[in-house]
Amino acid sequence: MFKLWISIKKDVRILLRDKVGISLMFVMPIILVVVVTSIQNSTFELVNKNKLPIIICNTDTGKSSAQLITAIDKIGMFKVTQIAKESANAITDNMHNQDALLGIVIPANFSAEVNTKAKNASDKAMAAFSGQADTVKNVEKKAIAGIDPLNLYYNPVLQESLRFSIQGAIRSALQLVQTRQTLRTLYYSSNEKELPQSLENEMLNSNTTINMLPVSKDGTRTTPNSSQHNVPAWTIFAMFFIIMSLGGIVVKEKVSGSFIRLKTLPTNYMVGLLSKQITYLCVTMLQAVVIFSMGLWLFPYIGLPALNFPADVFAVFIVTLVCGWCAVSYSICVGVFAESQEQSNGFGAVSIVILACIGGLMVPSFAMQGIAKTMANFSPMHWCLQAYYTLFLEGGKLKDVLNNIASLFIITLIIQFITYLGLKRKNLI
Questions:
Q1: Which one of 43-57, 229-243, 349-363 scores highest in mean pLDDT?
Q2: Is residue 363 packed enough to be buried (19+ CB in 10 Å), middle (13-18) or exposed (0-12)?
Q3: In whole angstroms, what is the distance from residue 278 CA to residue 263 CA?
C-alpha cells in the first residue's frame, strides 16, 4: 500500500508539471461546452422563440392574397415584410438587403384561381346534394386551371428539416385561405347570403389540440434544454481528452528509460499502472465536477439555461466513475503502443474525435444509418452518452443505466487486456 501511495504522489507531481496537459484537460473542455451550448441554445431560440424574417411580394390585388398574408403572419414563426409588387423579379436582392431568410411571390391570378376552385367545389357539392348525377359529371368534366405555384425562396443556410417545417406552415396557411373561400361560396350557394363570421370561425377553428409531452422514466414532464444535451456530452469528451497528457507521460517513461529503472525496484510495474489509473481517474472526476458545476451555477449568469441535475446523484457518480476509468484505460493503451509523443498525441486526438463522431457526441445516434449505427456500439463514448442521457434527459435511475454501464465495463476490460498484451510484447512487465 505504501508503494502505491508513493507511486501516486510521483504521478501527481508529474501531472502538476504538465501545464499544457492541465489546460487541455480543463480549460479547453470548459470553453468548448460554453461555446457549443451557446450555439445550440441560439438555434433553439431561433426556431422556438425568434421569428424567421420573410419577405412577401404580392402581385395579386384580390382578397385571397391579403388573407394569405394575414394567415402567414398569424402562424407565429415568421416576421412578415411586404415589398412593392413591381419588385417580384428582385426578390433575391431584397432578401440580401434586408437579411431575410425567406421570400414568397404570390402570383397575379391567385385570388381569381382560388375563387374559381372554390366555385367548382361548391357546384359539385350542390349537385351531389340534389342528386343530379348528370350535373355532377358535367362539373367534374370542367377543365379547371390550377392555381399558379407560390415561389418560396430560401437562404441556403436553412437546414432541410427546418425548410420542411416552413413549407408545411405555408401550406397550412394556403389551405386555410382555400377552405375559407370554399365554405363561403358553398354557404352562399345554399342560403343566398353571406356566411356569418361567427359560424366561419367556429368551422375553421375546431381543430383538435395537440399537447407535446416529453417521455421520462420518472414521469416528470420537464422539457430538456440545450444544457441537458451538451454538458454531459462534452464532459465525456473532456474525460477522454486526458489522452493528450496521460498518453504522452507513458510514452515519455518508455523513451527515457524509466520503465527499465522501475523494473529494478523491489516492486511490480503493475503498481505504477494502477497509480496512474487512480491519479487520472481522480482528474476525470474533477473534470465532471467542474463542468457540471458550471452548468448548474454559471450558465444562468451568462444567459444560458441551467443544467437540471438528476435526482439519482449516486447513479451519476457511478456512470462518471466508469466513464473516467474507460477514458484512463484507453489513454494508457495508446501510450503503451505509441513509439513517440507525436504519435501518441496525433493518434490520440484524431481517435477521440472519431469516437466522438460515431458515438453520438457530434452527430445524434438516431440520425445514423447502416454501418455508422453499427459502429456506434463499438465506441465507448456511445455507452457513456446513452447512460448520461438516460439520467439527465429521461430522469432515469441506476437500474435504467445498468445495461450501458455493463457494456462500458466490458469495453474497458478489453482495453485493459490489450494494454497488458502490449506491455508483455514489449517486455515492459
A1: 229-243
A2: middle
A3: 20
Q: Read off the pLDDT band of 414 (50, 70, 90).
A: very high
Other beta carbons within 10 Å of 351: 14
Q: What is the pLDDT of residue 11?
A: 73
What cell numbers appear for 264 in the block? Answer: 529494478
Q: Are strands 52-58 and 78-83 parallel, antiparallel or unpaired?
A: parallel
Query: Is pLDDT of 183 > 70?
Result: yes
pLDDT at 206 over 60: no
In this prediction, residue 247 carries a pLDDT of 84
Which residues are CB-neighbours of 190 under 8 A, at least 6 positions away? 126, 129
DSSP 369: -
Using CA atoms, how far residue 341 sits from 26, 41, 243, 317, in Å, is 20, 38, 11, 32
For residue 202, give Cα distances in angstroms to 69, 195, 196, 197, 207: 21, 11, 10, 9, 10
For residue 213, what are the CA distances in angstroms to 8, 208, 220, 245, 311? 49, 16, 10, 44, 20
Give domain limits for the chain: 2-44+227-425, 51-204
For residue 196, the one-letter residue type is P
Helices of type H across 192-221:
197-204
CA atoms within 13 A on the CB side of 279: 25
Domain 51-204 in this protein, CATH class: alpha beta
**In this structure, what C-alpha cell is assigned to residue 331?**
489513454
Would you state the cell numbers that stand for residue 346, as one nine-digit string? 496525433
